Amino acid sequence: MSADTAIAQVKELFAAQYGADPTGVWAAPGRVNLIGEHVDYAGGVCLPFALNQCTYVAASPREDERIRICSVLPGDSEPVATECAAGSLGPGDIEGWVGYALGPIWALREAGTLPSDPRGYDLAIVSEVPLGSGLSSSAAIECAVGSAVVELELGSESLADPSVRSELIAAAIRAENDVVGASTGGLDQSIAMSGQSGHALKIDFLHGETMQVPFDLDGHGLAILIIDSKAPHSLADGQYASRRGVIDAVAASAEAPTLRAIGDADAIEAAARAWAEKEGYDLDVALRRVRHVSSEIDRTLHAIELLRNDDFEGFGADMYASHASLRDDYEVTVPQLDLIVDTAREFGAIGARMTGGGFGGSAIALVRREDVEPLSQRIAQAFEDAHFDPPAFLAATPSEGARRVA
Ligand code: GLA
Fold first, then answer.
1. How much is the pTM?
2. Cα(25)–Cα(404) distance, rounded to whole angstroms?
3. Which of 40, 284, 326, 351 has the most beta carbons within 10 angstroms of its beta carbon?
């Protein structure tokens, strides 16, 4: 679906549901993370880019204190629609997909970015970001609705203000943590708001710094292929929280705000050892978990330097090493993701790894442009041979973050 088609569709949906044209349409993108996985909540460094696949929100303010919201989920022809009191959007008030959509409004009011009195809105949503594919459809919906409401309340130029964007990132994270109950780390919301076309974003969570890193795939005859493993994936199901729980507990036991703040890899290992012994936690598992985080942060810093020198071969080697660490030390891959990466390596792809939270979802491969088709065929065949459900393939183009589109 092109952006124009999606915008026309979301306007039509709005008009059909509410009998009027929307005040405007806002979009926020899905993402892939090139490297730096499961380190955001540890104060680490990530390198995501925003996709051109977006979630679109058509929105208008209302005179009363009701919120009406509807969405056509991918694969469905009929919209799902619901409404609620604009004053009841906090933890325990709303759940499911509505929590992702409306939680940010609550968090923006709590933070004082939006007026605290409950305003009503009509909202219609259409998404091109596939759900459950590890491409962060959740941050896309949070940031699209958040952007819409911020501009409806604070004026049409308010997204141009970097401090408003930062407040939106924080609100989207808070909504996901407190309203939805997924303890995710902030990578997804940051890139959904801050993506720039032709760039990946270095995010350093310890120092609170970001830097745009040129990522000119076309200019180098390269492509990033996304392979959706179709293995079911959910971050609210406890697996993600259990990985994060170990990292947070080791940091807390060393009285550090994050794992990385403890110090170098040796200091982190010593802290994990002490924590595991005190808690009676499996020592080997604890050491492997923190080793993933330390090594992934080093690898990501190394990979970013390579990329800045156009060393794509070296960058690809770091991608493979990242996958191995996520598979062996962090244990967040699934057989489908490992098969994709093994197949890509045998094929001769420059690099490949799972992307996002894992436990299903997608992998990415860095390839020469002419290899996109043959590699896709090779992976599809490998899935058939292994009796896995067929994977899906998407092209990934580094694109813009959240913005008004109509
Ligand atoms: C999910 C979370 C992010 C991050 C990644 C793993 O996408 O939402 O915060 O932790 O997993 O890197």
1. 0.97
2. 6
3. 351
